[in-house]
Amino acid sequence: MSRRTKLIIAALFLVLLAVPAAYVALTWHPAFPLRFHLESIDSEPLEEDPRYRGLRVRVENTSPIPVHICGGMLYTNFGIPVFGGPEGLLLPLEFRDGIPSRNPDEPVIVPAHGELHIRGALGAKLTQIPQGGEISVQCTWETATRAGAGRAVNWIRYSCPQWETGRLPMIEPLRTTVPLETKGHAPAPPQEPSAP
Given 1.10.580.10, 2.70.150.10, 3.30.70.20, 2.60.40.10, which CATH number is that of 31-181? Predict the structure, then answer.
């Protein structure tokens, strides 16, 4: 084989290697792409726990990649717990026609440039606050790339001898706090995402 042919093959190999590497780099830790819009709050307390009222939230993905939502907590004062805990939660369930469409242990996948509706629960005493725009969502999320890498690491962790698993990195979902948008209130910028 000539030197020129070897260089062409090496260049093609590097290009083919660079494409997936660039994709992983761009989708591993993007800027937070989700927006949460309050659609409605139930007028009656939940049967399961009368301290809470149900709410319906529309989740919008502004990015060109799918995003997995693992869960969410609702807080007042933009992420600062008032009484030592969250005032509500978002269930990682996608609802279609009022019926949960997937297993609650699985994350909800918001399609690229898409939206879906999820349910949540808000403390009954706080149902007037959303009109003032003072509720924030602490969302646990990850991209499909990060989720796939996490599944691969977990598979290796359970398949390898115990002494080898300490060398593997933990790939955990990201957490970001953003406002729960209501009609007539502009969103504040999200806080920087962090790994738990």
Answer: 2.60.40.10
CA–CA gap between residue 171 and residue 146 (Å, rounded)? 7
pLDDT at 104: 56
The whole-angstrom separation of Cα 140 and Cα 108 is 11
Sign (positive/negative) of CA torsion 89, 40, 109, 106?
positive
**pLDDT for position 60:** 93
Contact 108, 118 (CB under 8 A): yes
Tens digits of per-residue pLDDT, 152-194?
888 887 777 666 666 777 888 888 888 888 775 444 444 555 5
Query: Could you give the CA distance from residue 94 to residue 72 in angstroms, rounded to a whole number?
Result: 13
SS3 label, residue 78 = coil
CB 20 within 8 A of CB 58: no
Cα torsion 37, 126, 71, 61 to 10°: value is 10
Assess whether pLDDT exceeds 80 at residue 68. yes
Q: For residue 107, which of 88, 97, 96, 94 has the smallest C-alpha distance?
A: 94
Spatial contact of 146 and 74, defined as CB atoms under 8 Å apart:
no
